[in-house]
Amino acid sequence: MVKKVFLFLLAAVLTASYAQAQFTFGLRAGFNLTTMTEEGIDTKMKPGFQIGVVGDYALSDNFSIQPGVLFATQGCRWNFSLMGVDLETSINLNYLQIPVNAQYKLDLGGMNLLLQAGPYLGYAVSGKVIAKAGGLKEEEKINFGSNKEEMKAFDFGLGLGAGLQFGNIQAGLGYNIGLANLSNVENTTTKNSGLAITLTYLLGK
Hints:
The protein is mainly β. 9% of the residues lie in helices and 66% in strands.
């Protein structure tokens, strides 16, 4: 069901790009640095990536709405000791994300300054925990659902960003603030957050 929803949204973006003269279709790729916040755990950022499609619907010369459908990796890593053994642990999550950003363009002469803000929705499609200690490596699949042993699949939050546009190319720096509690454990709050450096190529602009 979830896959059908995302395929429908992708088809809608592609259709709109031909039906509306102000709508431009684009391809996006980027580098992510993400973490997860939880009280009592000193988490560190984990590198990852994102890739997908975006649209740019121009409402005026300076203002546009930019929706997207992205595959993005998230998670975090942390180190701790257990019975005198140092453990390196990471949470690796794979999400389908739908950001919808309002974008303001300021003409700098030969290029545009871009300012963005907007909500995003995410759905976790897979994940695993990896633990390393003394040359050994252990992996465990993350299950998604409503039980205490599982993580919530749905995520949402607010994205903020800025960048530059040169012709058809947009280079951006963004920060996602997760607002959804992903934990099913009582009195425990776990949220996603992270930075992203992206490159977007707008077709036919």
